[in-house]
Hints:
The structure holds 2 protein chains of 2 kinds. Chain A has 17 helices and 10 strands. By secondary structure, chain A is of the alpha/beta class. Chain A folds into 2 domains: 286 residues, Alpha-Beta Barrel (7-stranded beta/alpha barrel), CATH 3.20.110.20; 92 residues. In chain A, the strands form 2 sheets. In chain A, strands 1, 2, 3, 8 and 9 form a 5-stranded parallel sheet that branches. A 5-stranded mixed sheet of chain A has the order 4-5-7-6-10. In chain A, a hairpin with a 6-residue loop joins strand 6 and strand 7. In chain A, helix 1 packs across helix 2, helix 1 packs parallel to helix 3 and helix 14 runs antiparallel to helix 17. The radius of gyration of chain B is 22 Å and the shape is elongated. Chain B contains 14 helices and 15 strands. In chain B, the strands form 3 sheets. Chain B has a 7-stranded parallel sheet with strand order 3-2-1-6-7-8-9, with helices on both faces. In chain B, strands 12-11-10-13-14-15 form a 6-stranded parallel sheet, with helices on both faces. In chain B, strand 10, helix 8 and strand 11 form a beta-alpha-beta unit. Chain B folds into 2 domains: 254 residues, Rossmann fold (3-Layer(aba) Sandwich); 154 residues, 3-Layer(aba) Sandwich (Rossmann fold). The chains are: A alpha/beta, B alpha/beta. The interface between A and B is medium-sized, with 26 and 24 residues.
Amino acid sequence: MKKSICLYFQVHQPARLRLYRFFDIGKDSHYYDDYTDRTILKRIAQKCYLPMNKILLDAIKKQKGKFKVAFSITGTTLEQFDRYAPEVIDSFRALAKTGCVEFLCETYYHSLASLASQAEFEHQVLKHKAAIKEYFGVEPKAFRNTELIYSDSIGAQVHEMGFDTILTEGARHIMGWKSPDYVYNNDFKPEQKVLLRDYALSDDIAFRFSNRDWNEWPLTAEKFVGWMEAKEGEVFNLFMDYETFGEHQSAESGLFDFMAALPAIALGSGFEFQTPSEVAATHDSVGDISIPQPVSWADEERDVTAWLGNELQQESFNKLYSLQEKLSILDDATLWADYGRLQASDHLYYMCTKFFSDGEIHQRFNPYNTPYEAFINYMNVLSDFIIRVNNAIAEKQ
Amino acid sequence: MKVLMFGWEFPPHIAGGLGTACEGIVKGLAHNGVETLFVMPSASGDEDQSATTILNASDVAVANVSETVDEFINKVKFFYVDSNLVPYVDPEEYFDAIEKMRRESSTQTTVGFGQKFKFSGKYGANLMEEVARYAQVGGTIAMQHKDEFDLIHAHDWLTYLAGIAAKELTGKPLVVHVHATSYDRGDEKHMDSRVLEIEKRGMMAADRVVTVSYLTRNIVINKYGIDPAKVVTVHNAVDFSGRENISVERGVRDKVVTFLGRITFQKGPEYFIEAAAKVLKRTKNVRFVMAGSGDMMNRAIRQVARLGISDRFHFTGFLRGQEVQEMFALSDVYIMPSVSEPFGISPLEAMRSNVPSIISYQSGAAEVLKYALKVDFWDVDAMADDIYALLSYPALADFATKQGFDEVNELKWNGATAKLKEVYESILNQ
């Protein structure tokens, strides 16, 4: 059996909050910095989404369908494409048409609902599933949770929603002696296949590619394929943010050329490309993987402390999800949309105080100077939202 | 009667409360028939000179240095410090000043043009150097104008050396005015010994020491060892002329309890937060606002998050100009839980804006405000009780609001400076 390469790219942009002051509470319920969202989205579309989609489409055509990739695109991002860069949607549709691209399911709002409320989690997963169907005409079969957050019980919940394949992180302290380069199954639901990210190979591309201090620099497709040939395993799961290409790592680094060259060289060396669902269908599980506590692909710790590690984050998270019950009896679409956007994990990420180890990556995408500013702004917005929810409840009664 | 007065700043260009107080004092003195020559390190020319004549120290060349001056400069040299030393910046004005400097990105260098010194008049890295040079120029000015004044009046430690120089060179009596002391700024371990020394020297050299409250008078007597017979209290006042209360549309239906000031240890922010948590246990229709910035702000935010009240406790950051008035207009209760406050003008402003106020006994303002509610800063239960009462019993809030408004309107500089004039007279009649 051929060794497989499974490429999956995450596409996400949050609805960023504007500077929302105490004085705005109760007066102005538009929370978003539309201008910044638009500016960033248009920039990334030009630098990443459009050129990279073209490279992938060309490779699929050139390899006559033997090159395959998977995407997960959050609902907020799809909305932003619609508003600011509809041509990006078209280019994803062109990829969808080849039949070589799988679209994964996740929470519509890139939220941490899986850690807070089963009902809200399910609501958002179904919402995202419907959106993917609407945009790309395919029903997603495999699941990736926000930031690859996974535990045995989250996997089981996802299984109940009809997903037999789930993706998560395969870092060493999660795996122990096990290798991420095989297919495993959920400890609670053996029917569910678990695909684990090869963190070393993925990060070679996502983090180290342009680092000139790295002793493997410059990385070529030949060298990279050589590493996979030398490594034991059945499937190499290369999972990363799509913005890696052209945004986190600049075009000048040669990353586009690397990606353009990779398919032919890998196929020539006897590898095959598979989408996550294909991997799950063609590989048997080598055993259970037990992950009782939630893990993720973020930071050195690979846990959920990037979003829930300090008291500010926990407070915002608890206050937000304490509204779940009230919202459940309301059918106001505007309130639900705001509730969803306020759940984006990004808002909590901005409040992270773990500056010393992974500060660099935290800071790069952070519109706030300090976690405190992020917290104050978020809580001001949330305070206004709480007033609106309470008013809506009062009206209903 | 004519007074040579040494200040550090004067409106409109001010970083803190000292300049505002000086303006109130010279205007009040003018009303009482006392003329003033007001010296400041760096005047801009747009100061209101209707009540005083402003002398800009930056324009004055140090005159032919006589032996006495030389001698004096030698004494002053003792205080000369390398400008690379970490500055002592008066925390009374620290945050406002830093914010302001950052906004204006002004240079803080002091350049000697021949014998003229260009003062920044700010609170920057070479503050100590400016203070020492200000003393030399102050002495020179005093000599140049020695026939034009009867006594010397110096405001806060920044100007004490200038006051001493003027006194030594002219033989005229000196009044030093204590608006704040090192003991209000932090515990004894963290005090700047150089500032402490200047403070003490100024108070010792003075014929009278004027304090802004009895609280400060006690500190001057007990901590600086000054003879009680020469320490007099003249409470601060506030000039509300030309000020109209503004009205602002409220976004929240809940009552608002406000803390406004620098978020520093001295202001007691943590006691306010604790009291807020207690009130929120009993009633929900209230929000708390901490307006301002300061070195304890992040700690305060964490405390609020830990108590789980951050949907009801809001931070605004540093407020500028009109925003302060807006904040008062949005408030139902004002609170100043200071651990140590020489006077504290903000509750007067709140009460003038029809906001009933709760202040700590550890503030000078508590000595003059009969209609403010008073608690010990550490007594968070009493604080919570008072907040709850003002929110829940309209009769109490209305009474405190109405009486408080009338009360602060009576606290005029004309009255305060009449007392100051008596102090001057008692020295001159000795």
